[in-house]
Amino acid sequence: MSNCQLSPTELSWLSAHESGTTYRVAQKLNKRAYDVAVKPASFQPGDMVWYFCPRARLGTSPKWTRFYRGPYQVIKRINDINYVIRATAKSRPIVVHVNKLRACREFTLQ
Predict the structure, then answer these.
(1) How far is residue 43's CA from residue 33's CA, in Å, rounded to a whole number?
(2) pLDDT over 70 (residue 1)
(3) For residues 85 and 22, which has the higher predicted lDDT (pLDDT)?
(4) pTM (global) more than 0.70
């Protein structure tokens, strides 16, 4: 049955159905592109990490914003994607997603 033989109600339903299908295809393509760029990360208790927390202060340029806070220490691994981190022994622990963490590497000036 061609589109010109459909009633306006059937035509609008068909358009909605096709756009949903298009949306699902686009969603799968976007997920595949995202997964290619993501590098798996895993941390052990005791590791030092930076915590991604992009907060701009009012009245300052985003150019001067520090995106990572820390260093924090990994206290516990809840599961593959969630970790408990803490800045100091007396600070409150925070549960964070692994995508918000970056390994803290030591460096030396030469």
Answers:
(1) 25
(2) no
(3) 85
(4) no
Per domain, the residue ranges of the chain are 3-37, 48-103
Number of H helices, E strands in the chain: 1, 5
Nearest to 74 by CA among 99, 44, 42, 96: 44
How far, in whole angstroms, is CA 58 from its chain's centroid?
24
CATH code assigned to 48-103:
2.30.30
Average pLDDT over residues 63-75: 88
Q: Is 49 helix (H, G, I), strand (E, B) or coil?
A: strand
Take residue 35 and report the two structure tokens written for it.
Answer: 């997964």
Residue 76 near residue 94, CB atoms below 8 Å: no
Under 8 Å between Cβ of 104 and 48: yes
The answer to whether residues 50 and 39 touch, using CB atoms and an 8 Å cutoff, is: no
CB 107 within 8 A of CB 71: no
